[in-house]
Each structure stands twice: as C-alpha cells, then as structure tokens.
Please model this.
Amino acid sequence: MADVVVRVEDLHKSFDDLEVLKGVSMEVQRGEVVVIIGASGSGKSTFLKCLNRLEEPNRGRIFLEDVEITGQKTDLPKVRRNIGMIFQQFNLFPHMSAIQNVMEGPRTVLRMSGERAREHASQLLDKVGLSDKLDVKPGQLSGGQQQRVAIARALAMEPKVMLFDEVTSALDPELVGEVLTVMKQLADEGMTMLVVTHEMQFGERVADRVVMFDEGVILEEGPPEKIFQRAESERTRRFLNQLHWEGE
Amino acid sequence: MKYQWHFEVVWENFPIMLSGIGLTIALSILSMLAGAILGMVIALARLSPWTWLRGLAYCYTELFRTTPLLVQIVWVFYVLPLVTGIAFTPFYSGLVAFGLNIAAFMAEIYRAGITSVGQGQTQASLALGMTNAQVMRRILIPQAVTRMIPPIGTMWISLFKDTSLVSAIGVTELMYQARFLAVDTYRPVEIFTVCALIYFVITFPQSIGVNWLYHKYRTRE
Ligand SMILES: Nc1ncnc2c1ncn2[C@@H]1O[C@H](COP(=O)(O)OP(=O)(O)OP(=O)(O)O)[C@@H](O)[C@H]1O
Ligand SMILES: [Mg+2]
Model:
C-alpha cells in the first residue's frame, strides 16, 4: 500500500507575465529521496517554495499526508512546522548562537520548555557533528558548519518531509562533503526528502528517484541509474553532459 | 570698528537662560519618546500586507518629510485648535508638532532597519512555522535594532537643535529666553554668542557619541 507524504496536483505559478511552473504533478512516498535537477531558471526553487507556500501557487493543489496545504483556510504556520526547509544561503539567525538557532522553532512555535528544547537541540547538534560549537554564533562558523546547524534547526521541528534547495552551492568545495554526509545519514534513517542539487554523485548514491525539470514542467523522471545513464530526452542528456564538464 | 564685549549681562541673567535649557531638554526628550512610539505604529503600517494602510502611512511620512518643520510647528499652534477645537499651551503645541514630525522620521528608520534584515531571514522563520508577529518580534526587530541606533542618534541631535524653532510660538526654552534677554538688555551679541555656546557644549559630546555608535556598529557587520 502506498504511503504518500506529499502529493502535488497540476501546480501552476507565474510571476507577472512569466509562467514559471506550467502544471507540475508529483507524489512522494514516505522515506523516499527525490532529487530534482534542471537548468537554471527551470523553476526548481519556485517549486520547493510553493510546497510550504513561501510562494503562493496560482493553480493546483498540494497535500501533506491528508492535509491540503493549498486550502483557503489552511493554518499555514501549523502545516509549515511539518515541512523542513534548508536554503542555499543557510539563513541562520545571526543574533543567536548555534544552539539557540536550533531551539528557536521548538521554543517559539511549539512552546516547548527551555530545558527540553536545549536537551533536544544539543542532541541534534551532536548528530550533525557540532557538539563543540553549541554556543558559537553563526558568524564564527564555516559555511559547512552553518549549513549543518541549519539542518539541525529544521530537524528540531521533527518534520515529515525536508526540502533542500541547492544547499551545497554556496560552499567551498572542500566543505561540500560534510553536508552531504549528514544528508545521506538522514536519508538512511528514512527521512522523506526533496533535494534540488547539482551534486550528481549524491543523486546516484542516495536518490530513489531523479526528476528533471525543464521550463516549468517535469521533462522526465526515473531511478538514478536510468536518468544518469540512459535518459530518454536529448535535453536531459545534454544538461547532464554539461554538468560533468563543469565538474571537471 | 572695535566692539566692546560686555559679558556681565549674560552672567546676571544666567538663571533665566538655564530655565530655558531645562525646557529645551524636556521638549527634546518627550518629543523623542512620543515620536519613537508613534513611529513604530507607522512603520508597522508601512510594512503591513494591506495596500490602503501602507498608502496611508506613506502619505503621512512624506507629508512630514517634505514640509518645513517651522511650518508644521506654526500650523499645529494656530490651525490645529481651529480644526479640532482643542487649544494647547505653546509647549504642548511644540510637543505635538515634534512628536508627529519625529514619528515620520523614526518610521523611516525603523522601516529601513527592518527591511535591511533581508528576505532570507523571513523565509527561514516562516518555514519553521512562525507567525508574522513572531518573525517580527524574534527575528527582524532584534537584528534591526543595532542598525537603527546610529541614525536615531543623528536624528536626536538635529531634534535637540531644532527645538529652538518653538521660540516662534512662545515656548520659553533656551532660544526664546535668549531672544527675550537680547531685547531686554540691548546686548544681543553677547547673549546669542553664549546661547550658541550652550547649544554647542551640550550637543558636541553627543555628536562624538553618535560618531562612536556609527563606528561601533559598522565594524560589527
Ligand atoms: N520573486 C520572483 N519574482 C519574479 N520572478 C521570479 C521570482 N522568483 C523567481 N523568478 C523567476 O522564475 C524563474 C524560475 O526561478 P527559480 O528560482 O525557480 O529557478 P531555479 O530552477 O531554482 O533556478 P536556479 O538553478 O538558478 O536556482 C526564473 O526565471 C526567475 O527569474
Ligand atoms: Mg534555485
């Protein structure tokens, strides 16, 4: 029996005259890792931001389990708790220490007691390998460390699904690995994940499914072996070739 | 031509000038408080999701930023009582005019501070499940405050000097007392020189303080 966590039906999104998403449908199973690839401007970020309605879709429906996210009366703060989001630019709160960043959601949104939130946050920071950085401000952390704090911050809300938008693109090459390792660990633990990335090795090793976006539609999708080795579409093959070139 | 300075006149009347300083300081502090509070309301209106409220707040700030302060003071003193039927003493008229004026400038400082925090912070906070009010209170305002302190300092100094304008409506602050004494003693040169010195002695250390604040918060970025 299918256990669908995220269901997207015919999603459309325009910015003024520019139609960025032109009817995207997708189902994500519990524990599935979906890697989204596609050229710059193809609508990948917009798609992720529609999922927690940081962007307002123009048409189509989105469900998290059986709760409709796109409903008129949806309690947005409440559904967003269940959707973790990690950004390219980390977006840590610079006026708070690492552990305060991780505690912020549970304290402010879930009204958890300080003691419990601190306990939980320090476990999560330990999990992402930062148990020695609890009281350090983001400004004093490397990009890779900041991104791991951001992952811990999202995990603190115990989300049902996590969205990653090019989370290693702003990092120096030598710091990419430590973040991908944490993401792989989450995938192994059964976290449901949608990951926009240009890291094809991550896609090959961790993805259950790879989805190719092109000009606001899903051009093709399938298991990583198929997309990376035997893509049907010429455009997908060309896109992947170009990436390998850039990676060289 | 050699002018004969006679500063004795100033010392004889110094208590009168001192009483003026008290009023100058009181007017500055009260105007600042009123403006800081009203300005917050206007800034929140300018950042609100409702177009009509944003428009209203925009008109308010522009109205006070594009008309001369002296005109605003005189208007509040002479015209506001006719329109509203409420007449204030000169001091309270000055306070109302400055409060309204400072609010417009404070609103801009608050707004600039809050919008400078950046879209990413808001998105990250909303994604955690915060409400708009929580984002404001927990994330945006705490970060904006340090950026607001230097421009608020600058504004405070111009406010302190600009209070001299209310002598035009008869508030017996420092400038008014100086004008009064100048006529009374036939010694305008000495009186106004000392008056300028008093403003300088009070304002200069504050100006140094504000420069220090700019330096402190700039290097922190
Ligand atoms: N807030 C916005 N206002 C107007 N246009 C926007 C906005 N956000 C995105 N766009 C436009 O929508 C298109 C898709 O943007 P999006 O960020 O979703 O692409 P992407 O696939 O994530 O690209 P990249 O790989 O560069 O991150 C682009 O042409 C972009 O300029
Ligand atoms: Mg993007």
Residues A 44-45, 165-166 surround magnesium ion (ligand 2) (CB under 6 Å). Chain A has nine helices and ten strands.
